[in-house]
Amino acid sequence: MRKSLLLLIAAVLLAGCSTFERRAGEKSATFSQLDETTRQRLKDRDISVGDTQDMVYVALGVPDEKRDRISEEGSETTWIYPTSWQEDQGRTLVGYRRHVVFDPGSRRYRVYPTPVGQRVHAQRAEERIRVTFTDGQVTTVEQVK
């Protein structure tokens, strides 16, 4: 009973995650028709020219940004997958802490201020992968190595 309850809780928690297995299940009609080499390539998050939008979705998930471009040559859709991180910017002064000490020689209390600092981080982001589709197939993959 307890083991099945734990398994149920784990399944509910993992249901919200966008994993390769979940995405492959969502696009099972497309994924089941692929050969084993292509399936493994998508599992390794490796996309290439000629892949479909469903294949890219299975490999990389939902893009953070989608752009459509219409020109005389036709229309293109670009999916952008960024990466983000926090960059350490050093320390900054946020105030002072007072230390009160009794001085027995002068029979007075003395106040000594001590500076208090805090680490500062900046949120950074840059494009990691940019995939361009023409007529539903990948025509360009730009990737930061």
3D architecture notes:
With 145 residues, this protein is an alpha+beta fold. The protein has one domain (2-90, 122-143). It has helices at 2-15, 20-26, 28-31, 36-43, 53-60; strands at 65-71, 74-103, 108-134, 137-143. A four-stranded antiparallel beta sheet has the order 1-2-3-4, with helices on one face. It is elongated and about 90 Å long. The model is unreliable at 12-16 (pLDDT under 50).
What's the short story on this structure?
The chain is built from five helices and four strands; from the N terminus they run H-H-H-H-H-E-E-E-E. It has 145 residues and is an alpha+beta fold. Strands 1-2-3-4 form a four-stranded antiparallel β-sheet, covered by helices on one side.
How large, in whole angstroms, is the Cα Rg? 27 Å
**Average residue-wise pLDDT:** 87
Distance between the termini: 48 Å
For the record, the count of structural domains works out to 1
Helix % is 25-40%
Structural class category: alpha+beta
Low-confidence stretches: 12-16
Number of distinct helices: 5
Strand/helix succession: HHHHHEEEE
Q: Report the β-strand fraction as a percent range.
A: over 45%
Spatial order of strands in the largest sheet: 1-2-3-4
Task: Give the tally of β-strands.
Answer: 4
Overall morphology: elongated
Largest sheet: 4 strands, antiparallel
Q: Which helices and strands, and how do they pair?
A:
Layout: H1 2-15, H2 20-26, H3 28-31, H4 36-43, H5 53-60, E1 65-71, E2 74-103, E3 108-134, E4 137-143
Antiparallel strand pairs: 1-2, 2-3, 3-4
Helix pairs in contact: 2-5
